[in-house]
Design a protein that fits this description.
159 residues; two-stranded antiparallel sheet
């Protein structure tokens, strides 16, 4: 038995995670952006992420990788994420056009519900269901990575 053996990495990470569990503060899932700069930066992030996913999908389609089912799924996931960014962008813009009185907030002032009085309210409600686009995109990427598992990139043949 060695007395001075180093702690394995996974044990150290487990200990850190356990400490975080008991020492962590509240994790709020909803982030508000300070007006007006915060929302502008967030919208720019959606544009850049959407363009990156669109470019990624196009590069896959134009390359020799597109003959493999795994890369076709990856391109599809990236394309769906590009659509999701447009969808989320529209939802953020619509949120700015809804009067504050149409939102019902909780005790902390977080918008929890919207009353559906106008067509803008209805469109906002529909566009806030962006998870219906995001989840299939992530599923495509997961299935692509699962298919790629064990298939080294060097084994791909140009056709």
């Amino acid at each position: 038995m060695r007395a001075n053996r180093p702690i394995p990495l996974f044990q150290a990470l487990g200990l850190i995670l356990l400490m975080q569990l008991f020492c962590a503060g509240p994790a709020h899932a909803i982030q508000s952006h300070g007006p007006p700069e915060g929302i502008y930066v967030h919208l720019i992030g959606h544009v850049l992420f959407g363009l990156a996913m669109l470019g990624f999908a196009v590069r896959i389609r134009l390359s020799h990788l597109s003959v493999r089912k795994s890369w076709q799924l990856m391109a599809l996931g990236a394309l769906i994420l590009a659509v999701w960014n447009v969808w989320a962008f529209i939802a953020h813009v619509l949120a700015d056009h809804i009067p504050a009185t149409d939102f019902i907030t909780n005790k902390q002032g977080v918008r929890m519900w919207v009353t559906l009085h106008t067509p803008v309210d209805w469109f906002y409600y529909i566009f806030k269901m962006d998870h219906l686009i995001c989840v299939p995109a992530i599923l495509c990427i997961y299935l692509a990575l699962r298919r790629m598992n064990g298939t080294p990139l060097m084994s791909l043949k140009k056709r």
